[in-house]
Amino acid sequence: SSDLSNPNNLRSTIEKFDIKYIVPSCNDASFSSASSVAQEFGFRGYGSKQDTLNIMDKWHYRNMLVNQSFNIPFERIFDEFSLSKVGGDVLAKPFQSHSGIGIQRFNLDDRKNYYALKDLKSTHFVEAFHDGTLHSHSAFFRDGEIVSDFLVDEYCTHIEYSVNESNHPSTLSIDVFENARGITRKLASLLNVTDGLLHTQFIHFQDRLWVLESMRRCPGDLYGSMIEKSTNYDYYKNYVAPFVGKKCQNIELNEKSRLVKRQSIYSTKQGRLQEFTCTFDEQEIESIDLIPFILPFDNCGSGLEGKTGIVFFTLKENVSIPHSFHAFRSYAKAHLP
Questions:
Q1: pTM
Q2: CA distance 256 to 258
Q3: Residue 230: closest CA among 159, 95, 138
């Protein structure tokens, strides 16, 4: 089998099998590869090469948003004077990275950190650190208008800067939701998104939304399954739609969202999986859906390589929405001998 993240391999496969449609999966490599050949073969659902660069290249994306006066925690200048204006803590993020890998935090009250940041200038960009809450907004567009969208709360409780828990609906207010919609509409106009998915991550801090990143591909870790369990909206069908020449559909407004929490299950060490266990409160939880990535006695890694499955907790209808879903005592674990 060929590595289809390589555009040349993908091009050969398309020509060999006379492929008419390509739908990117849930990672950047698939979207990048497919986008690079989309115009050549006339595939639907993709933007221009410049639009793809603007959304996928972290440096291009942040510079574009700065120039358009979006509210982002990005600092372009590495000199001591500019960093001193930021003050406090900053995050240095690699240009080429994902899932929070390689992010470093520096306190600018320590003068030697200015020099450490300068050493990272060619490989990292700098963001002011905001101790807010993390959220994502998934919006489906049809002919330039949002027809369905979802605001989700996200948590990094296992590995710093890597999301492993989330929930829908969000605990944020409807005013914040409307603010996220407004920002997404502006992003869509800037990125020339008229049909399909635009997924954006935000930090909510001091009653403001700070834009972190956007993508046109489907988010991973069964994000769409969480939305489907919560709303009955066919997330994946609508994600695929523009790539096969169809339009995204409206969500049924009379559908009441169920409270659903999603958790990625990690092993804390390398070894063979023994079992999964779930801890939950029967007064809160109506159903549990466990999707294992490996089977008992299979080998598993640790850290980000130790993801062994995903679990969904659906809350009972009479349970009121909490200030934070993370406060619920429901969680799953992977056990090794």
A1: 0.88
A2: 6
A3: 138
